[in-house]
Design brief:
By secondary structure, the chain is mainly alpha-helical. About 80% of the residues lie in helices and about 0% in strands. α4 packs across α8 and α8 packs across α9. It starts with a helix and ends with a helix.
Amino acid sequence: MKMMGNTRDEACKRPYDLRKRQELTGHKRLKILAAARAQLESNGFLHFTMESLAHESGVTRQTVHNVFGTKGGVLEALFDELARDAGLERMREVMQQADPEAMLTGFVEVFTTFWAKDRMLLKRIHGIAAIDSEFGSAVEGRNRRRKMASMRIVERLGKRGTRNDDEESKRRIAALYAVTSFEFFDALAEVYGNTDEAASSVLELVKRAFTAAP
């Protein structure tokens, strides 16, 4: 009977220990991501290493590796966090809109909100992506998703009017993809001096190009 009691105690303890380990891992993950963000905002690329992340977050380099795998994995996780903070999860709802024009408007608004929320950090990340392959891959992966959404929207809009040939569709997809890019938004924000006007301009440009009325 004593052995059975020990077995039950151990069975209860294992889920508890697992939960505690998961909580500890989650806490370390948040600390590493906070260190990654702080380093990108202050030092940029040169000091962004697995060693520096471990030092700044108070964990070992092995812990950083175990949680994220690579520097690119850290950046992917940071992108996910930025996206959640900016409401990018709304894209699922936007892409399910029955009205193609509402889908187009929502698409633009979601991305301009995302670009505006952490504009200077995103500017730094995109700059680093031009010279670092891991950063470049992470940014390109996000851009591919936006391009796929652009293709879907152009396809839906095309069904409402005259059918476009393949070349015209490609031009429209490329235009929507370009106008909703961070680089285009950031350039407008520089010109206007604020992100609100940049967002309004992107939406107006898209409506003029892709809908019947601005």
